[in-house]
Amino acid sequence: MTKFPKVILTDKEKAQRAALKRAARPRIASTIVLYTGSRQNPKILMGQRASRSDFMPSVYVFPGGRVDRADNFAPYTGALPARTERILEAACSPRKAKAIVLAAIRETWEETGLMLGRAGSWSKNISHKSWDEFRLQKVVPDLSDINVFGRAITPPHRHKRYDTWFLIAPFRGNPDIVSDSHELLSVGWFDFDHIQKLKTHRATQMMIHVLKDFMARPNPRPDVFFSHMRHGRYQQHRFPA
Asked: Which run of H or of E encompasses 28?
């Protein structure tokens, strides 16, 4: 097991957890590593969470967030890579597997201004502000070429918990069109050396370690790294087992 620095909670985070009678139930979420350049020397899209955030404030993260109900109904083009589909569907239904990837696409738009998709028209309006923007701009989310490389569940000592899937995809558009949002600041493209100098959370440091191994392999493993806590101790193994 690779060891990473101990997480230090803010006083606000401690108080919010203490107010709960029991550990929060993890909510399904996803985050995506978009990269430009070669897999040997990539530049990765990240941004800094606002200092006012009540969950992991001020740290640099990949774009992402929890799966919304609307993500189950958003239209899409392209098919998930067979490996990604098989791994996600080992944990949830086919519809939810696609929603996990669609949530990462939606959150990327909300947090960085990038729309991951192809030109096309929507046959329906699903009454969601972000997805409505995709429809108005005639962009259909594209699931192809998005791979899964990890999974991590927030430990029970936090007041918010997520069962997060970590995705990766090359970005072939104009990298200069990224922008800050109310959720992420200082959005930009960073190589691994630069990321080491950024303020990041233990989970992000762990997944960057996993990411480097994933990108160095000519062929991905049939399973993914999986981190969670059991009986007060971190567990790291592979999923599906």
From this structure: strand 27-36
